[in-house]
Amino acid sequence: MHLNPGYRIGDITITRIDELSLNGTLPSRLYPKLDPQLVEENRDWLMPGDLDPASGHLIQSIHSWLVRTRHHTILIDTGAGNDKLRPLNPLFHQLNTPWLQRLAAAGIQPEQVDYVLQTHLHVDHSGWNTCLIDGRWVPTFPRARYVFPQREEEWYASPDSHNEVNIPNRGVFEDSVAPVIAAGQAERIGPDGGDFLDNFQFIPTPGHSIGHMSIALQSQGEQALFSGDIMHHPLQIMAPDLNTLYCEWPEQAQRSRQRMLTWATEHDALVFTSHFARSSVGHVSRQGNVFSWQYA
Ligand SMILES: [Zn+2]
């Protein structure tokens, strides 16, 4: 498990809370339209941290970001969660990981969390919203406000979303989102995004999911971007048009990815990804129309 000492943006600290490390997917499976040449051209710097030399599989991570400001304790996205029934998505079926113990090791008990911010409501971003107690799904963070894009709620609460692309997310709204709404702990971000608390900004980046938003953070002139699922692996920095098989609105996903890569370079932002391996954090730079990535 990767250990990082944490990051600082102005007077705010950011710590990664690991859930799973993944190494089971061939690039051509995650990216159906992948040109194999792209992997060839980048294998020298992708191996061994991002691409397994033995199997050729992508190496990825699932984790949350713990953000501590002077006033608040905040989690950004909540992984896949324990005990969830995901028979159609075996990777996340009935997990039993020590994610809560890792949160405790970072110094945080569930009742200390003030806000849970979500980029979107997919299976690997909503799981620890709730935990199973006496056979019921209850909010894991009893005092927290859970904040997510309203459009995501409308879509995943509706039978319209129960299509083939969303098979991996089957059951997620019911066991991981509906209980926090029922508990009166949900707060919605409207379709235009906007500022939140003193330091955050929700930026609409639709495409991977219908109401997906990235979350910017600024403090004392320094800037971070929690990119959510606009990217799943550094290959997409080199090829921003590359969508995963999970990107539900492909053209919007391409536009959002291009736009936010540009945004990250213009704001000199430290980018905190949802699924990159190694530290999962880095800087995007740009030469002409070509982006590149340096881990931080
Ligand atoms: Zn994801």
UniProtKB/TrEMBL annotation:
Highest taxon in the source lineage: Bacteria
Pfam family, one: Lactamase_B
Domain Metallo-beta-lactamase: 61-275
GO MF term set: hydrolase activity; metal ion binding
Keywords: Hydrolase, Metal-binding, Zinc
Coiled-coil ranges (or none): none
UniProt record similarity statement: Belongs to the metallo-beta-lactamase superfamily.
Protein name (database record): MBL fold metallo-hydrolase
The organism of origin for this protein: Jejubacter calystegiae
